[in-house]
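Quick one:
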Amino acid sequence: MKKVLIDLTQLPLQRTGVGIYAVNYVRRLQSMSGDRQLYFLVQDDDSELLAETRAIPAAVVLPLKATLFRRFAFRVLLEQVLIPAYALARGIDAVHSLHYSFPLLSFGRFKRIVTVCDMSFFLFPELHVPVKRKFFQFFIRHLPRADGLLFISASTKKDFHRYFPSSRVPEEIIPLGTDLARLASPPDPTLLDGLRQRFAIDQYILYVGTIEPRKNILGLVKAFESIAARHPAVKLVIAGKLGWDYDTLLHYVQASPLRERIVLTGYINEAEKHALLKGALLFTYVSFYEGFGLPVLEGMAAGVATITSNLSSMPEVAGDGALQVDPHQPAQIAEAIDGLLADPQARAALAARGLEQSRHFTWENMTSTSLAFYDQVVTPSAIAA
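Output:
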């Protein structure tokens, strides 16, 4: 029986991309883990992941003190010393790290598998906090020393090989998924009504994601300003937690003559996101770069006409299910928004295509591909035979 340790201690409590990926992966493992013995490291303040991992048959769940291991220095100690020691003591066959950094030493006794979510730390280093940039660049440079790499899109894999063309590590693409049954279902009407009242919104365009420069929210705001006069009842709702370097955006919104029509909600949970998606006229996600673009998939799965970028992984996810624009051209963004707001039939047709496109991406496929990759990395000769 193969023993695999999955490190979930890197995940913040407020779920965004990698956190949503991790939670959904763990949920599918509850019925798909097969004959593998799974071990999980979880911060003890993460009640959701503790509950989800404990629901996996025969899983060994190790809660770690968040008061200690959410501190940077102790996280490094955990990853580079304590995890290898535990893996060696328990005869672990593979350690799966979900977010770039991983144990640098395995002494040849266990395999190290890493999920690579994007290459923005190399492609757009100026869009990251300096300390975070240096830390993750260090580990990304060492990824060719790992034993297996999982890429969440073909675009991310291509970007990786642009910087590391000589890497010969076994690798696999595992597109992320979405909970189609939940997102396609009607929202909780009480919750949606409450959000409408709380933020004073009725007709609105929606963005969901972290507030940071890479997401091109300022370009979206400028596009909205240029067409807002033709749609006086429509507001722009920007939902998501503050990331970093957001002062320029906040100051711009505050000074905008349309500031009463631009709503920043702050962080929203999954139920609130579902409700806001279902109530939106349009979903817009015109980021400069994404490793996958999970919000694009969620917008399409919710049956909302979606506008996204024509760069990096987003065309790979969107297909013909979303309208694609150049995020560097606010005029293109504005034209796309204006056209869809003015044409309800075009909105409905785009929403239908998006819903169909979203069916190609499931968490079940992602999970089965990941598990098969574990087996391939741990026993390559057996798989080849």
